Each structure stands twice: as C-alpha cells, then as structure tokens.
Queue: 3 jobs
Job 1
Amino acid sequence: MCKILIIEDNKDVNFMLYETLSEAGYKLCSAYTGIEGVHKIKNEEWDLILLDIMLPFKSGDAVLKEVREFSDVPVIIISAKDMVRTKIDLLKLGADDYITKPFDLEEVAARVETLLRRVRRQKEKEQIYTFKELALNGNAKRFYVMEEEVELTAKEYLIMELFLKNQDKIFTKAKLYETIWEEEYLGDDNTVKTHISNLRNKLKNANSREEYIETVWGLGYRLNKRL
C-alpha cells in the first residue's frame, strides 16, 4: 500500500484530502506545519507528498528545497497561488505536479494515481529497488545505503536484490541457499548465516542507526519494516 504524506495547515482541506485518498486505498498521514512535514519526511519512507505552499514556520517552497537535498520522493504542490511564474519556479525547484486551489477531489486522486503509476513504471524500467535508506540499481549492479555506494560480493548482492524485490516475504535458509547458490540445500546453515552476518555488518557500518535485515525466529530472514 502506497504511503502519502499531506502537508497542509488548513485542517478542513487536510481532512478532505485524507478522506478522499484513504477511500482510494492509500495509507495517509498528515502534517500541519512545514517543520513537522520535513521531520516526517526525514524519519519515514513515503511514496508521495502533497505539499501546500502557505505553511506556518517553514513555507512549502522552503520545504521542497530542503527535501530535494536528500530525497527524490514525488511531490505534488497544492496552492492557492495561480501565477504561471510561481508554478514554473516550483517545478524547477523539484515539484512533480501543481494543483491550484480550489480543486476537485477526484482530480487530485487521479493525479496522485497517475504520478505514482509513472514513478512505478520508471523504476521498473530502470530496475531501481528501494527500501528505507537502501537503493539497488539492477542495471548497473550497484548498491547504496544513504546514497553512498557499498561494495558487496556477488552473493551478498544477490541476497539484497532478492530481499528488495520481495519486501514482504520471509526467506528460509533453505530457500535462500537454493535461490542464490542454485544448489540443493542439505541442512548446512553456516554458508547462509555467514553471508547474512557479513551483510549486516556492512549495512551497520553504512548506517549504524538502522537494522535492515530481521531474523524471524523459526522461519528465516526478511527486511525489517519496523521504524
């Protein structure tokens, strides 16, 4: 389920957007100031941001500028400002779309769906897989943590690729071994355990604040989705 953050200080507008997009099947969260919005963007993973311009404490354009320093998350601007120059400036600053108030809620939902679909198709074409601060480029065979490349062995890369392509799936040691090594699993856990341990160490060195691979006792391993 796609996660969308609404940064809008008008509670009525925020609620209408929240209700409409919830009914469309998205997971929503609201922020009411620019500072609160930036905090949420930095500390959680989002698929799309709906961003008002006239926000207290930190304006929407300042939020957009700061976010573009560390994230490529899709952003749709929602603003009462209808000047062409304003739209152009915000699009150049990194916005992906611009909707003028007052707006039709069905149009907002349609634009959200269109942008998410475009981003999804582009990622599939580029073979880019992301999770929290992790990113894997399937074409270039490169792996990144917090936008810094991390050198992996061939097997480590294949394990991370498998995890990132199947983010909700638990992999048993047997399944990992048979998928990555393409051999029958005969019960020796050491090979898989060693590679998982080495991966965890490299991920921890790249970002000590996060534990990306979770052990599900009695079952196997998966990506750790806990915040």
Job 2
Amino acid sequence: MAKATSLTLAQARLLHLAAQGLLTRPEKTATRAALRQSIARMQLLQIDTIHVVSRSPYLVLHSRLGHYPREWLEETLAAGHVFETWAHEACFAPMPDLHLHRTYNAATRRHWGLANAERHAKSHRKQLDQLLAHVRDNGPVKSSDFERTDGGGGAWWGWKDEKRWLETLFAQGELMVVRRENFHRVYDIAERVAPQLAQASSAWAAETVHTHFIEKAIAALGVTQARWINDYFRQKPRLKDADLDALVASGAVVRVQVEGWDAPAYVHASNKALLGKARTNKLEASHTCLLSPFDPVVWDRERGSTLFDFDYRLECYTPEEKRIYGYFVLPILCRGELIGRLDAKAHRADGVFEVRALHAQPGTVWSEGQIMDVAQAIVQSAVWHGTPSVRITRTQPAKLAAPLRRAIKTFQLEGSSL
C-alpha cells in the first residue's frame, strides 16, 4: 500500500481556508458572479436573523468578497440561482442541488426543523391545504399578509398560525421562497419558483444522495477528519474511517495524514490541485477579516479547536451572566490563523461601529503586522456597515487597545481600500 500523503497542521489549515475562499484577499471589485461562486464553493450559506452587526449571510459573504451591495444576495435568490432549504440549519444553497436537498429532506435528513413541520402537517392538514390553495390562486404571500387576531406574538414560539403553516409547507417542500422583502420570506408554490420540479426526473436513491452530500462536505471543508463530515449537511450517523473506504478506493476521496492528528484526514479529488500546493508550501495566506459566528469555519467546535487551536462557542443564545466573550462575537481571521475574537455592535443611526470587547487568543502577543491587519479589517467592516466611526471599548490584554486605536486612526485618515 502506498504511503499516505502527509501534511503539517499549518498546511492543512491553509488547505481548509483555500477551499472555503478565505485564504487570499478578495478581488478589488466584487461581482455577482463571484457571490454565486462563493456560495457554490461553501455549498451552503447559513441564514440567521440576528442583526446586531449585520445578518450572518451578509457577513459570511463580506469576509470572502469584500465590499459588495447586500441586495445582491436577494437578487441572486429572486433570479433562481440559489434557493432556501433546511440543511445544516436554514440555508441558501446552489439551485443545481435542489433535487438533492429535496430528496434528502423528504426521506433521510432528520433535522429539528423538518421534524417539527412533519408533526404540524399531520395535525393541521386541512388548514395547510386551505393556505396552499390560497397561494395557488392568489400568488406569493408573506407572513405579514395575515393579520394576527389574538394579540400575541413577538418571538418564534409566539408565531401566528399562518406563519407556522407557511413554514410547515416550506419545510415539506410544497412552498418555496421566491424572494425576500426586507429579509422577510415571500412564499410561492414550489413548481412556480422552480419550474424544473414539474418535469419528470429520475428518482435519487437515498444512499446515492447520502454519498453525494458526504463528497460535497469533504470538498467544501478542503481537509477533514471522518468524524467532522456529517455535521456539514446534518447527516447521520457520524462517520468512521471505514465508512470512507469505498470513496477512497474509487479515487473520489484521498486519504491523507496530518501531523499530530491521531486519525486520518480526507481530501476530495476536486481539491487535488490545492492538496498539491499545500504539500509543496505554495498556499500563502494573505487575507484578514472578521468572520460571522455562523461561518462554516466555526460550525464545528471540535474541528475549529483541532485545526486552529481556537475554542469557539456561540454565546448569543446564552444568558448574559453566563457569557464569557459577548453577545455577537466575531472570530478574527488573520493570514491563516484565528488570532482572537471581538464582540461588536453597529450603531447605524449614529454611524458608530462599537467593539465592545476584543480578546486576543490566550497566550499570544500580536505582532505590529497583525495589529495593522486587524485594524484594517475592522475599518473595512465598519465602512461597509455604514458606521465609519470605530469605538474600541476594551481589549484583552488591555495594552492592545492603544496601538489598535492608533492603527485604526491611520486607516481612517488614509481612507481604507475597499
């Protein structure tokens, strides 16, 4: 048996970032095509409604594209290049994968969002059919089209009936999101949103679809251990190395060794060129940016810890008194490393981008170059958010605050390149 390809941890990290589109600085001018390519590379773009800084999908794209108009994402959805689906969580996905996701959601994936919809469909079929007929006869609808009469509301568990029914029909695949208005979903009959659904198509075997998603996850991750694969598309069960033997034997996946790991790693054949560059030290990290808390790079806590020695836990759903770093904490990616995190808030009315707290990775001392890179990333993010005035409230260590403020001031005076 041929000796497995070996990578250092640093090489594996760069391969992962290259596959995710986070290795090198974005092109100076973003394009709609680049936005579509970015989503295709990641396979999924997670949706979340928290907008204390900016809603997550916009942040994820900004970290990869640089300055771009937010409305491009809505235009991409309305043009039918992407669609919305339950996958890792609620996500945008490339339209060519529509049949894969619908097949997997109907037969295999056991996501909580799908399970809730299935229970709701069984107990409210009459109301669902009435709403479906209304949409079929009257055209696209959004939740706000239906007035609430019971005086409740205000949180997801207080949704009015029509909102629950729309979400159930969406999860069941009978409705799709045709567009968004002020980020609110607009629903229509699935076959009107995606006419290809009305055409006869060959059935996908469940095992075939399962294997497709395994391959897609490996490709999106660049390099991964078997145990990290299933989380990307919320597949079950967690994989073992033996589960990948057939893909390795067929050449679809390459098994490699990463120094310091007690388990083998896997690279998809589509990333062989990147693997070769990683092995020969031809991948160079030049990009620094602020990542969304819902970025694929930090989806899996164990993966983030193993690859980057970065223990990241989402705290926005944690009671305030139990938070360690803050409400909406953005990991800081600096030239191939996760070197810290910051809790931010965009005060749009005042034009202020507030860094409530910035924490360098424990045990590290930022170089002057890292301080400059992070300062520029903060200024770029602030300008893109329409909050060009940056306020640093505190840093850990405290002595980081003064040089960081000076560096930020430098970029503000010079005019940061976007």
Job 3
Amino acid sequence: MSKSLDFEEPVVKLREKIGELKEIAKSAEVDMSSEIETLETRLKQLEAKIYSNMEPWDRVQVARHAQRPTTSDYIEEIFSDFIELHGDRSFGDDEAIIGGIASFEGQPITIIGHQRGKSTKENIRRNFGMPHPEGYRKALRLMKQAEKFNRPIICFIDTKGAYPGKAAEERGQSEAIARNLFEMAGLKVPVISVVIGEGGSGGALALGVANKIYMLENSTYSVISPEGAASILWKDASLAKQAAEAMKITAFDLKEMGIIDGIVNEVAGGAHRDVQAQALELKNCISEALSQLNSLSEAELIDDRYEKFRKIGEFIEEEVN
C-alpha cells in the first residue's frame, strides 16, 4: 500500500477502519453490513470534502508521490505495439527520457516522455527523471523522425528539471534545451504535451512547445520548485508551502492564465490510486486533441503553435498621467 500524505490522513484512517470491520465480519461471521455501509458513505463524503479543497502544496505532494504513474505506465495502458528507440547518435542513451513509436487508435504516433523510477535503484538508473543533454537530443531525433514520416508526437512531462551537473553542462545542456524549443516550434506534425507529474523549468519546457498542452489535475508546472523559490525569495526553503501558493503552479492557475489548454481530471486521491482509470481519462483527452489537430495542414499547425505561445504573458499598457 502506498504511503499516505499528511492532508489525506483522515481518509486513510477511515479506509483502514472499514477494512478492519470487513475482516471482523468475515472471520466472526457477524452481520456488520449496516455499520460498514454507514462508514463507506462517510468515506465518500470525506473524500469529496478533502480532495475538492486541496491547497497548492497538497497538489505538489501528490505530483511527487512515489507511486504516481510514469510515462512507461501510460504507454503500457494507452498505446499498443510500442517500440522503444535509444540514443542520440552522438554521445549515448539517456534513460531519463523514454521514447519510441507506437499505435494509438490505429494511428502511428511517436511518444516521448521523462521517465523517473519508483524505487531507489530505478531512480538512480533514470537519474531521478532529470535528463542530460543527450536525453533532449534523443527526444529531438525522434521528433524529426516523426516529422519525416508524418507521425503525430505525444510528449509526457514529468521532471524536477534538467540535470544541473558539471558533465551535463560540459556536454551542452543549455544548447540542447534551446535547440528543442527552436525545432519544436517549427514541427510540421501535431504535437501534444501532457504534464503528468512535476513540470520543472526548462527541463520540462524542452518537451512542452506543443499545439495542445494539458495537465493532470494534481500536476504542477513552474520555472522553479517551491523550495527553490523560497530559498531565493526568503532564504528559507521551509517556506515552500507559501511559495507554492504565490507561484500559481497548479493546473487550475495555469488554465486560468491561458498557458495550458485543459485539465485532465484525476481519480479521487490522485492518479496513483487507479492507474487504469487514470489512463482512460488521459486517453480520451489525447483522442479528442488528435481529432482536432489531424484536420490541420502543416502551415496551420505551425501557425497554431506560434499564436499559442505569442499569447502567453499578454499585458495591457496604460497611460500614466
């Protein structure tokens, strides 16, 4: 069973109580259906109250949940005939980014996404989902391949940020990210990006120049982590909760500001509670987006992407007397 988060502790305790009563009723052959039904009704009410009033920091915690579905989980549930492709044809293969070709509702597509681990061993292998420059170059190679063969591109964003280590900088981390931004802007095929967990800084944006950008309900998308922002603004990382509220990093904030196109609803308690149900929600979202974008010409796709990002950060000038 996955570890509970602080804000959902009352829900977890009530679930445990219901489980205990069911075990007692089963082993002692006692009819406790009425008590169990009452508690289950209370549980639904409590879940509705807690999960509909989550604060930004609560959503940050859910986005970081160790058992939250990753890119590979969604690939397995949503797509068929996936073939993973490796390497950037220059330095090596970065396992923090996974990509390849697959089929979606009978249509060939290219999938690219950040990949973190769910255990310490896997996280070390995946570099905790923080790509090196060769990871972004691999992603770009697959994007250009998709363009050549007229395949739509679907990107899953889930990273704290690009790896900031010395080796990554020596191999051109900033250039690799900038190159992706430049090239993605001009791709002649539909591009859909979905933030499925954390979307941190340029490391996330390198897969985010898309025609359609969606976020899972409890994901985050920001230029820096709340801890990092608190350290810079107030010299105190422990004020991350206040920073999360001020930064407007939730899906609802970003939808309101026009930065993303839509929000994918999550199952109660977060995507990790029911991966299959969550994958179905995401599949429906991708299907609808593809049906809209497939009808556009190459020029219309590029113009659509251009206009989308031109509108971000609009401001109004007022004359000052």
